[in-house]
Amino acid sequence: MQMTGPFRTARSTVLVVVGGVVGMLSGVVLLVAIALCLVLAVTVIGVPIAIALLFGTVGVLTAVQRSRLTGYGVQLTVQRRTAGRWWERARQPGPWRALCYHLLVVPLGFAGFLLVVGLWSAALGTVLLISFGWLLPPGSAYGIADYEPVGLTLACVGCVALIIVALVAARGLARLDIALAGSLLQTSRAEVLAQRVTALAESRADVVDAADAERRRIERDLHDGTQQRLVSLAMNLGMARASLTDTDPQARAAIEQAHDEAKQALAELRDLVRGLHPAVLDDRGLDAALSGIAARSPVPVRLRVSVPARPSRTIEAVAYFVVSEALANVAKHAQADWAEVQVARIGDVLHIAIIDTGRGGADPDAGTGLRGLARRTGSVDGTLRIESPVGGPTRIIVELPCES
């Protein structure tokens, strides 16, 4: 935000003078707009119109000031226009900062204009007096024929001093104007970071939704294609196994082995399809899907689900896989007699608790299962807490933000 070029001081002077004129005109427009806004704000219906009028006026004045500064080599980042309803826009700091700038630039611009123009006028008047005062007759008010050399020397020194003060004042006022514009007319660093965080959160949500949609597609393709072909293969092998009773024993053994492996592959594929994205989760919701997990678990599971309003598909999928992975870990490592799963939606948060009576000592750094739970929970800005003292019991507490 620095002006460059060999005529920086002259450009600063022009910037201050033009800024003073623009600031005074902007002040008149702004005062009229504020007066109209106060009249409109008397009624509740007029408040949004007043806000729109005020922000519209501020936007036009900001564009004018931005063009003025851009013409002198000052580049300002454009503030992001806030979308939404009028009360949401009214809570944004950007328009109010711009309004503060326009209110400040009126007295500062007027004072700077008077100071710089007054100093240059006095300096130029002194130069004209010294240059052409000898043409006036002796005894006249502005003639210099009767002046002593000392007086003329002091006049020259005063003229030079006025020019120097005018140049320094112009440079200082221009820097002040640019500093105010930089802090009030462009997006602040905090707002830039907030916009980046919002953009990253939106892009991450898009990635999560895309991954979930891809899992659904794979599940559908496997269910409708590969699984059906394996079912047909297993049926054909089963019929061959039942009908070919008088064939060579080695051939019969090969058919029996192929039949058993086809059935095993079909069972594994069904588990894989169910693990990718269970159809019951979309059809009947989280309660039915978790009931299926609990029924298939080798460890007895007590399930309590209270979700009166269904969250989004992404949150449901994360909750399903968290419970599924947690119960799989209980079955593999916990040596528990039973486990309990509690799922409840309280406000906009889905609370999940998985409790088991196993040996405890669960450590996220010791394996990939708990780290996977943490990553899956964090993908939707959820939280995961593990309480697992040695000897048990183990409690996994998950909270997922959700919206209907």
Distance between the terminal alpha carbons, to the nearest Å?
47 Å
Mean pLDDT: 76
Number of helical runs?
11
Helix content: 55-70%
- Extract low-pLDDT stretches: 1-6
Secondary structure class reads alpha+beta
Question: Would you kindly provide a brief summary of this structure?
Answer:
By secondary structure, the chain is an alpha+beta fold. The chain has 11 helices and 5 strands, in the order H-H-H-H-H-H-H-H-H-E-H-E-E-H-E-E.
Protein architecture, described:
By secondary structure, this protein is of the alpha+beta class. Helices cover 67% and strands 9% of the residues. The chain has a 5-stranded mixed β-sheet, covered by helices on one side. Helix 10 links the parallel strand 1 and strand 2. Helix 6 runs antiparallel to helix 7.
Q: How is the secondary structure organized here?
A:
Elements lengths: L7 H33 L5 H25 L15 H5 L2 H40 L16 H36 L4 H55 L5 H28 L2 H6 L1 H11 L4 E6 L6 H22 L4 E8 L2 E8 L11 H11 L4 E5 L6 E8 L3
Parallel strand pairs: 1-2
Antiparallel strand pairs: 2-3, 3-5, 4-5
Helix pairs in contact: 1-2, 1-4, 1-5, 2-4, 4-5, 6-7, 9-10, 10-11
